[in-house]
Amino acid sequence: MSPIGLAKNLALVLTGLGSALVLAGCQPEPLRLCPLSANLAMPRPAFTVIDAHHPQYPGYQRIEVRERSEACDNGRCSPLWQVDTTAASGPTAFFYGETPVGFELRQGPEPLSPGGKYRLEVSREALGSFAARGSLDFDVDPRGRIAIHLPPGAPPCQLETDEE
Question: pTM for this one?
């Protein structure tokens, strides 16, 4: 190979390596989850997914709800509800236990219990190094109302109010 050809190949390799290092250092903003309404209650709580990069088509492929416990936090329990899709995005809002269009039911749904503590998570598998995830903790009180626990530092959710 000529010195010019060798230099071109080396430049291509270095350019590719530099691009890979830049991409590996980039982390997308996490997906945000919020209640859809200020009056969130059983049996069908509704949630919305906020993706700053794709507001109309949030980039996630799995919805999962688990109990909030040490065992579940360490992956030693099954989801109460899990749906997923091979599509690149999911709906902007969904109801617990209802399989969104284009998704497949994988587990459940199990009923949420008064007094229960839960974690809702949406996620996207890695596309290159771009996996994304968002979670929201919530509790169900004895009357079936749902209390949301936003992650530390998360901006407040803009909630719709039910007008009667």
Answer: 0.75
